[in-house]
Structures are given as C-alpha cells and as structure tokens.
Amino acid sequence: MLATFRRLQDWAERRLPALTRYKRPESLPIVLHRRRVYIVPTGFGAAFTVLLLVMLLGSLNYANNAALLLTCLLGAASVASMLIAFRSLHGLRLNAVRQGHAIAGEPLTFQLVFQGGDHAHPSMHAQIGDQLALFAASAGETLVSLDLPTTERGWHPLPRMKLWSNWPLGMFHAWSWIHPDHAVLIWPRPETGGPPPVLPGDDEQRHRLHQGEDIVALRDYRPGDPMRHIAWKSSARHHNLLVKDFEQPESQEEWRLDWRQLSQLATEARIARLARWLSEAEAVGRPSSLWVPGEEIGLGHGRSHYVRCMNALAQLP
C-alpha cells in the first residue's frame, strides 16, 4: 500500500506543475502558506472512510438514529482532524540554516531554524531521503538538526526537504517541500600519512623565544645578568647577590605551509597534504601560516585560524 502511494505521488509530481513549483531553490525565509501544503488520506484514513460509509448505510437501512448520530460524530471528527493536519504545517516559517564543519566522507550536521508563528505546530517531521527528524515548533525559534552525507570537498547545495505530519489521528497525511537556496562548505580529507613540512633554516628565525613572567627560583648572580633581575630584598639576607630566575617557555616551530612547495604533487594530493599539516599543527597548538593561490593567511593558531585555513583549502578549484 505504501509503495503504491509513493508511486502515485511521484507520478502526480511529474504531471502536475503545481506540485513541483516549490521544489526549486528559494531564498530564506520560507513560509508554508495554503498554496504549498498538500493533504491526502492515509491508508488508515481511507479504511476509516469506508467504515463510515458502511455504518451510514446500515443506520439508514435500519432507521437507527443512535447509529446515525454516531456515524455523523465520527465523520465530523475525521473532517476536523483533516483541518488540524493542515494547520500543523500552515504558517510554519524557516528563518535560517546553520551549518557545522565536516571533512569529506563524514556526515555534516546542519540546523534548520523554524518559527511557529501565531500557533503551535506539534508532531512535525523533517525528512531528507531516509533520514527523519521529529520536532514541534512554537512561537519562538526551534532548532532541528539533520545530517547531510558528504563525499567531496567544496560547496554543496542543500537538497530539497520534505516537511510532513499525520497529526492528530493519523487519518490524513499533510506535507510540503522546502528547498533553501543555501550551500554548505565541506573540508578536504587529510592524507593518512606522509612527511613533515620543510622548515626554514635557523637564520630565518624558525623559533620564537620570549622571556617568561613567572619566577621559578633564585640563583647566585653571574656577570652579565641584568640589574633589574636582582632580588635586592632576598640578597640583603645573604652574603651573595641573588638573581630572579624566570621561566623560559619552550620554543615553538612555525610551520609556514606553502602551496608552491608541493609542485611535484597533483592538485588533490597537495590539498590533502596541506590539510594534514594543518590538522597536526592544530592538535599541538603550533603556529602556522598558509599560502594558496589567491589567498595568503598569516601566522596564527587556534580554532578560528584552523577553520579559516581549511575553508581556503576547501574552496580551491
């Protein structure tokens, strides 16, 4: 029964332009109004309708007023449920799409920001392919998370999504299509292994040292120590001058990653190697810079720097 219904629905969508009018990408916000909400009886609803017809014929044939009243009440309830199913979608508003970050081959999680408007929208379903998310939208913002499968790096448009509901009695299936004009950026997949980056020589100052601010200990004065480091108060209690010994942080290598240094590799291999170097630098907090065609990102570290560099690699042609 379900497979037959889906084949019939697919045929109708190909034949009737009104059913496909709102499947093309459209800018945000997207509001579901009465012209884009469709509703049909479910299998249970069709069987219930047949049952009501049998009850109606039986009550008229036997002139049973009580049975006729029950039939009318059940019919009125089914008609009311059709209106409620329509209202569960009518007025729903998609305000924004928020995306996360993902490497090619991993699912990308993005969020749909819905707003209910002047009434609540209970028991709603958002569907992409076989993936389904259940939510209820109120007058405020409601976030719905979905996963998008990815295969390649770069910009990928969001697919069309189906919003539907069988609420409240499951006798009617109301649905609508939304296709936001929005694309998500997928990061390249780093290579699994390879050589470390080629670092410049010591004459180019590949290490950056700085004087620490925390005092580790006091030691005896040695010729050449700065006068401002002498601990005068502590020296007054000793026979020798004492000097403040400050903490010296370890040196950090600066990884200056350059697209031009990997000319022997193919384009995708270059991108994969640079992505691996960036991931390794991010894992240990190592400062890094990146040069790619059309963009140069200066020395930096941290999550925001890593995101900027990976975005630059993902957008390469």
TrEMBL record:
Question: A Pfam family in this protein?
Answer: DUF58
Q: Which keywords belong to this entry? A: Membrane, Transmembrane, Transmembrane helix
- Protein's name according to its UniProt entry: DUF58 domain-containing protein
UniProt domain DUF58: residue ranges: 218-255
Name the source organism. Dyella solisilvae
Which residues lie in coiled coils?
Answer: none
**Transmembrane portions of the chain:** 37-60, 66-86
